Amino acid sequence: MPPQLPAGGAAAAAAATASDRLTLPAPFSQIPFYPLRYPHPSPIHPLPHLTSSLNRNKSERNSVSSQDSPRITLWAKREDHSSPLAASGNKYRKLEYIVPDILNSHNTSNNNGNKVTTLVTEGAIQSNHTVQVAAVASSLCLDSLVLLHENTGAGLRTTTDRASFLRTGNVQLCKLLDAEVRIVPPGDDSAVVEDDLVGPVKVLEELRGRGKVPYWIPSGASLHPLGGLGYARCAFEIAAQEKSILSLSVSGGGGGGRFDYIFVACGSGSTLAGLIAGFKLLEKTEAIIQNNGRLLPPRRVIGILTSPTKPRAYHEERILRLARATAGLIGLDPERDITPDDVRLDHRFVGAAYGLFDPQTKAALETLAHVDGVVVDPVYTGKVLRGMMHWVAEGEIVKDWSARVGAQGISGVDEVNVLFMHTGGQSALGAYADI
Ligand SMILES: Cc1ncc(COP(=O)(O)O)c(C=O)c1O
């Protein structure tokens, strides 16, 4: 049995000491929240050398006059530096809204007044999500069980060092965090998940049979009903950082004082979906952001798909559904406020398979490491980086931006700010050492 939580609960203690000091509108502000990150926003910093080299490439490759070609400035939001817990990444924000449910779910009919003892989740062999769930379990004095599926993605299939892939990187971290790690071979149906909301029935029954009270967290925490709230909150955090990092007082046609484009990985989907819903709420409630008295187009969140397994249309439908579910919780009208047009997914950088470290992603990863000293991961943020670099270097941002400001009759916006969401994942790099 794990040790009992201290009287009053660790949640209450943590909530008293940690706050990101965001002001959220009701009813969003009233949704229970359990801080798992530092009591300050994750940092945003410029990527100066990548910015210079891509702006150079952009002008060389595209014959756009400087008047129509704003300067693009690249920034990184370091979600990999957001939490003191292991391998900081995007799952901690999601889990901040799920932990209150974990701590209260003894009240549900399933649990008959018994407190949760064990967090259960699943992922690919080098899943980042499972590490973060295991770390949260440790921090709550709970057990964790992680199911790692051999046949999810191509990482294990294509590695030249199978034994190492199965025990280094995130697998090693899960074990260090005291999770029970079960490697699930292809064809083993003992851990099959038919319904993401229900979880692996046999595993959960087995735990109950041993007197445990399991709590199921779906892969990536995205299909959990509360899974999108963390990144809806993050939208407000980004907007607050814009005020301090970028100039709001625009004179003579400078930048709009906003992160105009935000690039983020799309895997299980609720990071992107949460951002879409959060920015929608923000843009409805914030003071109108203007450039020389003219309304600028809304911030554009672009999801970079990380797996070719399912077609883009499948993901678009799923993101729309997740964004609407989150929208409904935070006070928006899901159907009216979130439209298919809000869902922007780019599938050109998926590579041949999920979890496969392709040469183009590797080149992008090496470029950033060499020029700005920042390391990203091979499965998610590497693909986002590659996609974002393409959008800048090939003039796609300029084209998109010009069309949007042109449609609103705006000219003279000479700077566009682009934010790269660094959602973590470097802890998998060791498992990809031979590639
Ligand atoms: C490092 C990293 N970035 C991005 C993502 C994608 O987030 P989501 O599953 O919410 O789409 C993941 C998912 O596991 C991840 O591990």
Any overview of this molecule?
The protein has 435 residues and is an alpha/beta fold. 39% of the residues lie in helices and 14% in strands. It has 15 helices and 12 strands. The chain has helices at 9-17, 48-61, 91-104, 128-139, 155-158, 162-165, 169-176, 201-209, 229-245, 270-285, 312-330, 334-337, 359-372, 381-393, 396-407, and strands at 44-46, 71-78, 118-124, 143-149, 180-184, 214-216, 261-266, 290-291, 294-295, 300-305, 344-346, 415-422. The strands form 3 sheets. The chain has a 6-stranded mixed sheet, sandwiched between helices. It has a 4-stranded parallel sheet with strand order 5-4-3-6, sandwiched between helices. A two-stranded antiparallel ribbon has the order 8-9. The model is unreliable at 1-18 and 248-254 (pLDDT under 50).
Tell me the layout of helices and strands.
Blueprint lengths: L8 H9 L26 E3 L1 H14 L9 E8 L12 H14 L13 E7 L3 H12 L3 E7 L5 H4 L3 H4 L3 H8 L3 E5 L16 H9 L4 E3 L12 H17 L15 E6 L3 H16 L4 E2 L2 E2 L4 E6 L6 H19 L3 H4 L6 E3 L12 H14 L8 H13 L2 H12 L7 E8 L13
Parallel strand pairs: 2-12, 3-4, 3-6, 4-5, 7-10, 7-12, 10-11
Antiparallel strand pairs: 1-2, 8-9
Helix pairs in contact: 3-9, 4-7, 9-10, 10-11, 13-14
The site of pyridoxal-5'-phosphate has 20 residues, from helix 4, strand 7 and helix 10.
List its salient traits.
39% helix; alpha/beta; globular; Rossmann fold; four-stranded parallel β-sheet; binds pyridoxal-5'-phosphate; 14% strand; 435 residues; 15 helices; six-stranded mixed β-sheet; 2 domains
